Amino acid sequence: MHLDVVVDDLDAAEASVLGLGASRHDHQPGTTFRVFLDPAGHPFCLCLS
Fold first, then answer.
1. What structural domains and CATH numbers belong to the chain?
2. Closest to 46 (Cα-Cα) out of 34, 37, 32
3. What is the pLDDT of residues 1-49, one digit of tens each?
4. How far apart are CA 37 and CA 22, in angstroms?
5. Which branch of life, at top level (predicted)?
6. Cα-based torsion angle of the residue sequence 29, 43, 5, 30 in order, rounded to the nearest 10 degrees
């Protein structure tokens, strides 16, 4: 399973998920979304609305 979370502000959402324990994935293939890993290592994306 892979989650895509739609957000209005990527920078603010990134700060929030990093503060909750996520880490940024090394591979960032686009500019309208960002890939992260939860603390257990599962990937998820933040996507611009």
1. 3-48 (3.10.180.10)
2. 34
3. 889 999 999 999 999 999 999 999 999 998 999 999 999 999 999 999 8
4. 6
5. Bacteria
6. 0
Half-sphere exposure of 41 (CA within 13 A, CB side): 0
Structure tokens at 27: 């591979």
Max Cα-Cα span within the chain: 26
CA distances from 26 to 17, 34, 35, 37 (A): 16, 10, 8, 10
Tokens 């929030």, residue? 16
pTM beyond 0.70, yes or no: yes
